Amino acid sequence: MALGHAEAPQGFLRQLGDRLTEVLGTRSGVEFLEWTSGSVPKISKPHPVYTLGRDDFLDGGAWLDDAALVAWRALFQLDGSTVYAIELDPKDLSLIGISKGPFGAATMETIGTALALDVGAKKLFGAVLGMATEDEQEIRLLRIPSLYFVGLWLHGGKEDSILPLDDHPSGLAKRKPHPPQAVHDALREWARGMPDLDSGVDEAN
User: Fold this and answer.
1) What is the pLDDT, as a whole number, of residue 128?
2) Domain ranges of the chain
3) What was the pLDDT predicted at 119?
4) Angle at 107 between CA 53 and CA 104, to 5 degrees
5) In this predicted model, what pLDDT tens digit does every residue of 146-175 receive, in sequence order?
6) How far is the C-alpha of 169 from the C-alpha of 1, rounded, in Å?
7) CA-based torsion, 192, 193, 198, 200: positive or negative
8) What is the spatial distance between Cα 193 and Cα 197, in angstroms, rounded to a whole number?
9) 139: burial class by Cβ within 10 Å (0-12, 13-18, 19+)?
10) At what angle do helices 12-23 and 27-36 cross, to 10 degrees?
11) What is the largest CA-CA distance in the chain?
């Protein structure tokens, strides 16, 4: 089993370049240019981002099959450090945001953990370079913002796996592979003790 990538929308890389050009005059764009210091960062293969709402999850019984595709996300690396993430809308590839923060690096670290633990990942570097293999698990990102949860979702193969990007108050440990049902049950139990929230936190990076 190897890690693989879903096919990004046609024209993704061209649109990615266009969207970056659009933001270069903004504060985020200036900070991005300062970070590169004239060097050319590496860009990861894009992966899809899925999300679930708290009400759907708790009251409607929604889970992975009901997760909505909300973005295509690529990561920028420089000198082995992943700092920036850029997200484009899956419908028209318009810019959702370019962000700086810990979740980009956490994503790559978690992928590395999946490889080390052999969680459906024998040929990570081949997958990152886009080399297809026969029996792959697709790299996805799962967000449940109102439950403060972000995880690497490895989809396909004999069974999906979810690896949280950070330790979660529900007891789910970061970068540890969990069966989807175990993640579902832990989050559901923890969420029932939370007060009602009108909105979740933005974890777009």
Assistant:
1) 52
2) 2-191
3) 44
4) 90
5) 899 999 999 987 889 999 999 999 999 999
6) 31
7) negative
8) 12
9) buried
10) 110
11) 50
